[in-house]
Specification:
about 65% helix, single chain
Length: about 160
């Protein structure tokens, strides 16, 4: 992680990339699923994946709810493009630095397992990579500039994803 110049906080972006990236991944998955369906695992393993998909979707709901609640309680912004007022390190942020982006990725994986549309699974990883490159790395620079050692210590303690 490149350190920003002391006293400067990088400006947030204009486009809320994570929602755009994940919405695009969903749309592309649906379109590719209709035009170029990929083979899916059937029988017993397919049933296990179907159940795992529902577990993943339940986890998505829990992550979204607890992350939003934790951020509201901390009185910090929910806007992915805004500079946060406070460093949130409790709740799901004590397990992953990006619980909402993780939830978005799990949403695609869960839908893949439930629907059998393999494109959701493949594009989940593409969306996660794109989110890391265009949003997370910028956010990390912003958080380092704003919170300094406090954020660096947190980043050493808690993984970016899981």
């Amino acid at each position: 992680m490149t350190e920003p110049k002391p006293g400067t906080v990088p400006k947030p972006g204009v486009i809320p990339w994570p929602p755009v990236i994940y919405a695009a991944a969903i749309a592309i998955s649906i379109i590719l699923g209709m035009l170029y369906p990929l083979p899916w695992i059937g029988d017993l393993l397919g049933d296990i994946l179907f159940a795992a998909g529902w577990v993943a979707l339940f986890t998505v709901a829990v992550l979204w709810f607890t992350a939003i609640r934790t951020m509201i309680r901390a009185r910090t912004t929910l806007n992915p493009n805004a500079v946060p007022d406070h460093l949130v390190t409790t709740g799901p942020f004590g397990v992953t630095r990006n619980p909402m982006y993780l939830a978005n990725t799990l949403l695609l994986i869960g839908v893949a397992f439930v629907s059998g549309i393999a494109w959701f699974f493949l594009l989940a990883f593409v969306a996660a990579f794109a989110t890391q490159k265009v949003a997370i790395e910028r956010e990390e620079k912003m958080l380092t500039a704003k919170f300094g050692k406090k954020y660096r210590d947190y980043a050493k303690r808690v993984r970016r994803w899981i």
